[in-house]
Hints:
single chain
Amino acid sequence: MTIQTARLSDPAVRAFVSAVNAHDREAFLSLLAPGATMADDGTDRDLGEWIDREIFSSHGHIDVDNESNGGRSLLAHYSNDTWGEMRTRWDFTVAEDGRISRFETGQA
């Protein structure tokens, strides 16, 4: 059973999932701290290229199944037009200003 986005514990993570699901690139980018980084399946990726390819041009969508670590770790079903649906994990580092400085994702 999925967790409604509005019920996710961490405000930055909640806003991240909302922006992805709304396909709102501007809102998504506003959530990131300057110099934010990310990794996919353990490999650091170019953030701009990755989000364009894996989220925004391919209609990415996150359905959260479980959260832990104060809401900063998620188990979710992620889908996009390129890869279809897969079970994924998402881990977030949130800076003092409340913006995401790093996220890591990969198959769970």
